Amino acid sequence: MSEEVNPGSRNGPEVVGVEVLKKSGLNVDTLIDKLVRATAAEFTTYYYYTILRMHLTGLEGEGLKEIAEDARLEDRLHFELMSQRVYELGGNLPKDMREVANISACSDPYLPEGWKDPRSILKVLLEAEQCAIRTWNEVCDMTYGKDPRTYDLAQRILQEEIEHEAWFLELLYNRPSGHFRRSYPGEGPLSRKTRTG
């Protein structure tokens, strides 16, 4: 007869993948907390980017929607990708949606009052990407040499967030970014490669 395990509890059979991380010196509880906050930020960003994208209007704004859409859909992909890892480590996502926004690692990217100027929206998008870069860089620093799976997922997300930042810097400050159209909206060329299911 198999041992019954409560999925919401860390009690139950030994999870070798977690024990190995603890032996490497990684504080798994701290990592789970960081990942839950980071995934909460990705989910809230996805939500707010939906609103921001809708408000990119007029001739100038219409041309920016595709780039905002790529970032929006890739942030949803990041949420889905890392949520799986949270559960593998024995963690949980909040059961209440209101808590997701409260624990987010980044501030909510609200629609600015002067939203009719697309540059004001681009500034909000840029700030959100810069927070995501800092957050995923911290996860990479925390897991480098200790947790290859989380590190691999986080560095793929980090690379895409750096690319998103470059897009918005290009649009705001006329900086070259090397942005190429995605093959399809929300492609996630680095993070999608590791997605399961």
From TrEMBL:
<dbReference type="InterPro" id="IPR009078">
    <property type="entry name" value="Ferritin-like_SF"/>
</dbReference>
<feature type="binding site">
    <location>
        <position position="129"/>
    </location>
    <ligand>
        <name>Fe cation</name>
    </ligand>
</feature>
<dbReference type="InterPro" id="IPR053475">
    <property type="entry name" value="DPS"/>
</dbReference>
<dbReference type="GO" id="GO:0006879">
    <property type="term" value="P:intracellular iron ion homeostasis"/>
</dbReference>
<dbReference type="InterPro" id="IPR033921">
    <property type="entry name" value="DPSL_diiron-bd_dom"/>
</dbReference>
<feature type="binding site">
    <location>
        <position position="161"/>
    </location>
    <ligand>
        <name>Fe cation</name>
    </ligand>
</feature>
<dbReference type="InterPro" id="IPR012347">
    <property type="entry name" value="Ferritin-like"/>
</dbReference>
<dbReference type="GO" id="GO:0008199">
    <property type="term" value="F:ferric iron binding"/>
</dbReference>
<feature type="domain" description="Ferritin/DPS">
    <location>
        <begin position="32"/>
        <end position="172"/>
    </location>
</feature>
<keyword id="KW-0409">Iron storage</keyword>
<feature type="binding site">
    <location>
        <position position="164"/>
    </location>
    <ligand>
        <name>Fe cation</name>
    </ligand>
</feature>
<dbReference type="InterPro" id="IPR014490">
    <property type="entry name" value="Dps-like"/>
</dbReference>
<protein>
    <submittedName>
        <fullName>DNA polymerase</fullName>
    </submittedName>
</protein>
<dbReference type="GO" id="GO:0004322">
    <property type="term" value="F:ferroxidase activity"/>
</dbReference>
<keyword id="KW-0408">Iron</keyword>
<dbReference type="GO" id="GO:0020037">
    <property type="term" value="F:heme binding"/>
</dbReference>
<feature type="binding site">
    <location>
        <position position="78"/>
    </location>
    <ligand>
        <name>Fe cation</name>
    </ligand>
</feature>
<feature type="binding site">
    <location>
        <position position="42"/>
    </location>
    <ligand>
        <name>Fe cation</name>
    </ligand>
</feature>
<dbReference type="Pfam" id="PF00210">
    <property type="entry name" value="Ferritin"/>
</dbReference>
<keyword id="KW-0479">Metal-binding</keyword>
<dbReference type="InterPro" id="IPR008331">
    <property type="entry name" value="Ferritin_DPS_dom"/>
</dbReference>
<dbReference type="GO" id="GO:0005829">
    <property type="term" value="C:cytosol"/>
</dbReference>
